[in-house]
Amino acid sequence: MKKINILSGKALAAIFSFALLGLLSINAVLSGEQSPKPIPDDVMKILNNSCGKCHNQGGSGAALANLNFTKWDNYDAVKQAKKAEAICRTITSGKMPPKSFVKKNPQVVLTEDQKIFICTWSKQ
């Protein structure tokens, strides 16, 4: 008579857990999911100069409701990507920074090179 080894419930649970984690990891890679990323320092320096007064902690309520750099690291990767694309669209269209703000703060005007730099980052 052959002896059959039966795995304990704990061993089966451990094997199942590792298999499930492996499948979830593979699914994340295949679906292109990424973890959230901070805004690089060189990009953030430009954004702080031109956008930070309204879009950082202590800024305008309406501006913060739309985009809050202080909370950027709390956004998931999908939300970060959408916000980054929106930043590029908004600055290249000339909607931001607002003309009324630029009149009082001419140093916030983005150069074409800065716009290209930010848009390149937004597509990564």
UniProtKB/TrEMBL annotation:
Domain Haem-binding: from-to ranges: 20-124
Pfam families per UniProt: Haem_bd
GO MF annotation terms: electron transfer activity; heme binding
Protein known as: Haem-binding domain-containing protein
